[in-house]
Structures
1.
Amino acid sequence: MNVRRGTWAAALPSKCVTEVLARDRKCPECRHYFMSSNPSDFVVNYPLLRMARSLAATGLGFHADISINTSNPASVPQPNAGDCPAHGSRMFFRCMRCSVWVCRDCVVVDHPVPPRGLCRILAISDALEEMKKSHKVLVNAKVKACQKAKESLENKVSDLQAAQNQQRDTANRLRSLLVEVNANLKDLKSKKMEILKKISEIDSMVEAARHTGESVEQAATIDDYTAAIEDTNASLASLEKHVAEDTQEIPALLSMPVLSSQTLVGLLDAGTSIFATTEKEGQPRWARVTRQDDRLHLHALRDGLPGAGCFTLPVSGCLGLVSMCVLLV
Ligand SMILES: [Zn+2]
Ligand SMILES: [Zn+2]
Ligand SMILES: [Zn+2]
């Protein structure tokens, strides 16, 4: 029940207002004519309404249809959200637009439904049903978003795994390169020692030959002279023989160690730039080494030095490996 009034002094129960509007739109007390035909256009007189409710509660009702819960005359209790702090009556509804529990008077005054307003009013049980549903939708959306985030993280993990494998691969290639380079260093060192040894051997032989030459000069008798000549000839023959042997051995010692083409391909695949270097009339020259299919390719030589920090090897060391050479000297 609502107690409504127009701009005049009289106050009427809502039910009476409806009846009056349906009949002749004239106030039964003062015969004032109402311009509006809509009961909700009449302002609720809250002080009077509260008084009427208090009277109803004490059993001294002044109007037959006053009761606390006019919309639920049966004894089945309707779910409610407690008493309205503004109007004192039970809140049996929810405004879905404003997300608040409301009483019947709240609906009329502050939460008008179309066409007067934009509010959407539901009974509490329906409102709960709808809220549960939208909560479920929200939770599902959150779960879906989390799953998506998880998927993208899983993709990141496999990206990182791939990068890790690649780096490990590179490390293995560099390790085998280091092994190869160390072996080459050892080889160079022993070759150098070998050549130094040969040089000192030749030195001592030359010394011996010179010594026998002196003996020939100092010979005082025929016998001394003959013996000295024999010594000299033997010494020279031995020197000659030694030099002949060295001539055969030295080219092998002078050959430079090379890196295997497998290692070079590995370096190129790991993103290392390889340059071959050489000299022409004392001027440095360089050429890029690249991989083309399964072959190493030596590009045209240019004057100067390649950039600092590049991996370089002598052209002589890669000629045997490179399958296609374009030497535009
Ligand atoms: Zn009146
Ligand atoms: Zn209210
Ligand atoms: Zn509202």
Note: The longest strand covers residues 283-292.
2.
Amino acid sequence: MELILTDHERCVNCNKCINVCPTEFANTVVSYKGKLVHSVNHDLCIGCGECVIACNHNARDYIDDTERFFSDLAKGEKISLTVAPSAKFNIPNLYRLFGFLKAKGVRLIYDVSLGADITTWAYIKELTELNLETVIAQPCPVVVNYIEKYKPELIDQLAAIQSPLMCTVTYLKEYKKINDSIAFLSPCIAKLTEIRDANTNNMVQYNVTFKKLTSYLEKYQVNLSEYEEIHFDDIDAGLGVVFSKPGGLRENVEYHKPGAWIRQIEGARHLYKYLDHYSVRLKKNKQAPLLVDCLNCVDGCNIGTGTEKAIPIDDIDVQIKAIKKMHLEKWEEPTTSGKPKYNLFNKFDQELKLDSFKRSYTDKSDLVKVTEPTPEQLDTVFKSMYKMHEKSRKVNCYSCGYQSCTSFAKAVFNGYTQKENCFRYNLEISRLEHEENEIVYGEIQRLNELLEQKVIERTEELEIVNARLEELLRIDALTEIPNRKAFDEQLEREWNRSIREQEPLSLMMLDIDCFKQYNDNYGHIQGDLCLKNIASALVSSLLRTTDFVARYGGEEFIILLPNTDKKGAITKANTVLKQIANLRLKHDYSVVTDYVTVSIGVNTIVASALDSSEDFIKDADLAMYQAKANGRNSVFHINEQK
Ligand code: SF4
Ligand code: SF4
Ligand code: SF4
């Protein structure tokens, strides 16, 4: 049956609900919109409400009938109300609330304390008449749910008597002939499971918890002070008024059976463990308490799961003490023996039949579908979580919410959680990913280095190619000596040096005599060969590495002579002239000799910033034309003309 709800949007997978849940697997981890969230397995849930209290992300809520109760009242449904004893402590203006509810159409209002008296009366009768050795009290539906689902072997020990609520309603229906639908004003969210249980005969239709009722009143801005005070419609209860406090039943039974062995135990943390021990005790045929007075809530129903939990328990005790005194005075009659006579039970003996208040239970253990893994299966789960060794399987850090790593592995095995909810598993995954990343990173590093090396190699190759291209750009393709571009750059350098160092700079402009005739008569191939021979003769005629020879264009060559004055330049020009003549390149069509000759114009300067290198070349050119004019095969220095 569905009772606890989870808002998956709000759930942050904090695992608190697992941690507080007295059952191992009622909270299951599921995937929702790409994240892990928690859900409730309703078959495994016992409705203890611990997760609703623990979840501080408001992701947990419970089903309650408040809205339906008011809506049915508005439709004219005949509804009477039974009120839990704890309402007196939880709802301020309780009697004005009754006024409001009656105004809304509620017919009769009964105090469940009377039903508590009937329950005690029935317990005492059952214990005495059947001579029972041990009985587990069942007013708390969570205890009943736990035993029916998880400890069916204890069903025979559950008192076969209805709860105070059901005793009240039985009394109303069977003895007061009230046929209305019944609502329960309740401190308990799990009462819904009791009222919908087949064994309670569908006698109650609405579980209206204090908490949801308070929200309802706030939501609809109900001002209770506007309503008159109206009291219960029933006869006054007796000692049943203390039922809602821890040990309330015990106090009732001890009143009638002083000295009886009664185990009083409350709170989810202790109760369910105790029932495990109790079960073992019975199996071993050991003596057990006559009555186990047990409640799921540590402070009893007064601060039950459906309350605001806002009242200090001592304040409740003070109030209960006063109410108890008042109610006992009504039903106790002094006797000569000193032990007062309790007239309420005499009344019950006369008016009620025990059978009316009996109930039975159902073994619901088949709902609990949990398979116990074999050691091999558990080992497989652990290995899938990278828990290879015993130590890692006993970390038991509780961060997954489970009580142990084994319990978590069992949940994984049964599909109730996912291994990603173990933080150590995630750590291991991160570590492995880190390692993997390191390997990948190392490989990337290695490839990068390889790439860098390749880039360096290619760059060097490119630089060589570029340098070669640069070189080729400055080399004359035919003669393989520097071309005019290379000369211009060299001239700029030497020109600047001459300005800087004030050293003389000389230039020879050289032209092959009658080269047109040579070409015309010997052909271009021969002409090219002639140019190559002249070029190599010029290169070998220069003794200094600083001297620079280039092809200037056509049959013209140019030679730059750094640190060379006029005299030195003329001497060098004459040497060149001779060297060419010595080549003895046949030229039958020259007007000078039978061999190839050249004319050389020379210029010399100590350059200043006011001079121009273009003029420097022009003057050398002029000198060369003068050498031609002088009969060719000669040297002429421009300064001789000036
Ligand atoms: S307590 Fe449970 S339901 Fe609430 S946020 Fe945490 S995991 Fe989610
Ligand atoms: S109500 Fe109780 S039993 Fe159910 S899931 Fe929450 S803590 Fe577990
Ligand atoms: S102790 Fe009372 S309020 Fe708490 S679960 Fe049991 S019956 Fe409900």
Note: The CA atoms of residues 400 and 635 lie 106 Å apart.
